[in-house]
Design brief:
Layout lengths: L2 H14 L9 H12 L4 H37 L4 H5 L18 H30 L38
Length: 173
């Protein structure tokens, strides 16, 4: 595979993660399929692992934010409401729900929701940034990414145009 095809393919792997906005789990399925098809190239292998690690990290962070926000908000909203009212009664029409109930610990849930929203916005822009870096033939590492897939097993080249250097340590350090 020549240099331009390698760069284009690595770019496509980054952009394929955006399919999550149209297809459930598309952010995992398409990058994995594309990466596994061409991971013989050290450049494509590096970018594929980075995208998959990033998607797994974002999923983990999202689950943590959900595990914080959802129970706290539910507890705060329904804490003074009898269970029978929740199941059978008119929901929130008797004045059982007031904004005053959203004080104290609910701020933690609201902060978790704001962090989640920021995370999803940052994810979109970081995927675009990774695609641009790959199209320019540069290596890219997503910030705050957990290394679920080992990225140090094959030392990548500095760019898609240069061959791997055996004396080179990972990521130019």
């Amino acid at each position: 595979m020549d240099s331009n095809n390698t760069k284009s393919y690595a770019t496509l792997i980054h952009l394929s993660a955006l399919t999550q906005y149209f297809i459930p789990f598309g952010g995992f399925i398409f990058p994995i399929l594309l990466w596994s098809a061409k991971k013989q190239s050290p450049f494509v292998d590096h970018h594929g692992k980075q995208v998959i690690n990033f998607q797994l990290s974002v999923l983990l962070y999202s689950l943590i934010m959900g595990m914080i926000a959802i129970p706290v908000l539910l507890f705060t909203v329904f804490r003074d409401m009898p269970f029978e009212t929740i199941i059978n009664g008119p929901h929130f029409s008797d004045g059982d729900f007031t904004p005053a109930k959203l004080t104290g610990i609910a701020i933690i849930a609201i902060v978790a929701i704001v962090i989640f929203a920021f995370l999803k916005i940052a994810e979109f822009f970081l995927l675009i940034c990774g695609a641009v870096m790959a199209s320019n033939g540069k290596l890219y590492r997503y910030p705050f990414t957990i290394g679920f897939i080992n990225t140090f097993d094959r030392i990548p080249a500095e760019s898609a145009d240069t061959p791997p250097n055996p004396d080179h340590t990972a990521y130019g350090t």
